[in-house]
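Task: encode each sequence below as structure tokens.

Item 1
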Amino acid sequence: MDDVILITELNDFIFCPASIYFHHLYGSRDTMLYQNEAQIKGTNAHMAIDTGRYSSDSEILQGLDVYCEEYRLLGKIDVYDGRKKILRERKRQIKTVYDGYIFQLYAQYFSLIEMGYEVRELQLYSMADNKVYFVKKPSEDKVMLDKFEKLIQDMRNFQLGDGFIQDNIKKCANCIYEPACDRGKIEC
């Protein structure tokens, strides 16, 4: 059984497990059909990383494909500074540091460590207001590491057909897939 989890899905699952299903359902269709303004801005904010234009410095790795064997996680890093040994996950705007952001960073961290890189510092970066949020490494925060590992286990055990209903109406109201979803509390 292929149980590899995409790093981006860690945050998505916390938001709503059904969103992962819809993301795969829409697949390669034009994102303009279903993305809202916030998602479009987020995609545009990552464009410099995705196209390798963030930095021409050879010590700055950007958009590197990574895999973590221990947790079977696959994805990309945003930015790793090889001189300073800093791993940074960039977000368009961070108003709240959500667990999902930290877990994406953990997945990138574990991947880089397995690949032989040294990581001294973890950061979340809010591009809109130029703020840096320092994140403790997993070995320095047992509570968050336990939550990270539980999330991965929950994701591997989750079945959408087991009667899942999203009971957080605020999440449904902010979900780009809500019009097509039958797993929420919003009534037509």
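Item 2
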Amino acid sequence: MTKIAVLGPIPRDTIYTVNKEVIKKYGCVTHPVIALSKLLGAKGTVLPVSTVHQRDQEGILDLFAPYTNIDTQGISSKDDRGTVIELRFVDQNNRIEKQTACMRPILPGDVASLGDMDAYVFVPITDFEISLSTLVHIKKEQKGLVIFDAHGPTTTMSMQGDRYRKFWVDMDEWLPYIDVLKMNLEESQVCWFKNEYEADEMMHYDEEKTDHLDAMAAHVLQLGVSHFYVTLDSRGCVLYYKGKNGIHKEFVKSIFMKDVVDTTGCGDSFAGGLAYGFTQFGDPIKAAQYANALGALRTQGKTFDVFKNKEETELLMAKYY
């Protein structure tokens, strides 16, 4: 039986889409948890780990209740601290974000009671939500692949709740405790700079700028990460890993979806797909394909019905890979 933990916030989201619709739902961790639940079926268990508001706990547990392979022991409202987010999309990929409440960070004690997992999927959305000590604890005391989404450490918030991009200045302290690192292109640009001139250049996102990725990948892999993924929006993703003859670089094309309803949670879903591919096949290319599939499926509706079981998901993948 495969056991996968997904760690991060379960925010109470209010989403204003580009189609002038308003969607209210619980987000972030919920996307990869339900996607993995459907993929694994009777062959595995998914454990969400998060701290939430007391007023939200019942609704969150009700959301997970129909899925018999989701173990909710890691969801706690003891401290009555959760996350509340407002997202206003200005186009399909860009949005204005506001955060009005903050969860308690996930600490070593929150994972110690879970026992060993086959994989730990970290999907923070703000820089304080995962403690570095938690990753250190897993590496020293527990077993399992650590998959980490860089969205958290590259995002911060002001005292007024405005959310904005930040440099991941202490990235090198985290890398030795991460097995699989995932980020999007914009996040990569605020992780890789060496002087004030490059930092100034990186403050302005350029969706065509990828010339830094090879050097960044070499650095990331040297410090202990085994696989490094960068998503390139609708184009797909690029993967780096070490092989017998040096660093391998692979591009995995996306799965095209004509009608995009809601892109919230695509990155989180992608991380869940990586966990499935690695735990079931141990194959980084196959992991990227499942990741692309879950990210694509996430765009197709407002509810979690967008995610499919293993057979239906692989039927979609077969059209592209």
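Check on item 2: The chain has eleven helices and 15 strands. The chain has a mean pLDDT of 93.
End of task.
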